[in-house]
């Protein structure tokens, strides 16, 4: 909780100090909107220039994030494995890679043009809709070692004005993440 408060305070400080300059920025903006309807309704809106996220990655003091790169903990899959899998998926071009169909739920992972799509539907209603530009995944996986290159992914997002990236409709919560 303390770490969350420190990070939130940092974001608020950065947005207040840079507010006038950033408001005049013509680059793309990242928007996050979360609506919760459990008990008392809550609406959270975050609107940040993508360039601020790039700067924040340099100042974040997190053990696993250094110089805009995120180091994975020991997991069952390494970044090298991810790169190898990703390169093979890219060669496949437009295709549906995963389709899981149950009575009331469907999960699909596919590539359409310059996007990787993840869609989850439940009772014919979309629950998760994720749209990631291929260039962002390429950038995230660039570089040596077991690090994900967050700064490169942010730079790739700045070049692509994607629109909706993620929408989630789960029970009493709706989440929308987009760039414009």
């Amino acid at each position: 909780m303390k770490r969350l408060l420190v990070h939130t305070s940092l974001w608020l400080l950065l947005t207040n100090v840079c507010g006038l300059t950033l408001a005049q920025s013509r680059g793309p903006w990242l928007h996050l909107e979360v609506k919760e309807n459990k008990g008392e309704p809550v609406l959270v809106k975050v609107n940040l220039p993508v360039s601020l996220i790039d700067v924040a990655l340099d100042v974040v003091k997190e053990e696993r994030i250094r110089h805009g790169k995120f180091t994975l903990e020991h997991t069952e899959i390494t970044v090298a494995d991810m790169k190898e899998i990703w390169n093979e998926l890219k060669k496949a071009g437009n295709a549906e890679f995963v389709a899981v169909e149950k009575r009331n739920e469907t999960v699909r992972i596919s590539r359409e043009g310059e996007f990787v799509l993840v869609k989850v539907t439940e009772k014919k209603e979309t629950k998760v809709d994720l749209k990631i530009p291929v260039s962002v995944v390429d950038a995230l996986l660039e570089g040596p070692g077991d690090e994900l290159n967050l700064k490169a992914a942010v730079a790739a997002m700045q070049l692509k004005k994607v629109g909706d990236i993620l929408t989630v409709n789960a029970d009493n919560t709706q989440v929308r993440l987009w760039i414009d």
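The CA atoms of residues 64 and 71 lie 5 Å apart. The chain has one domain: 2-179.
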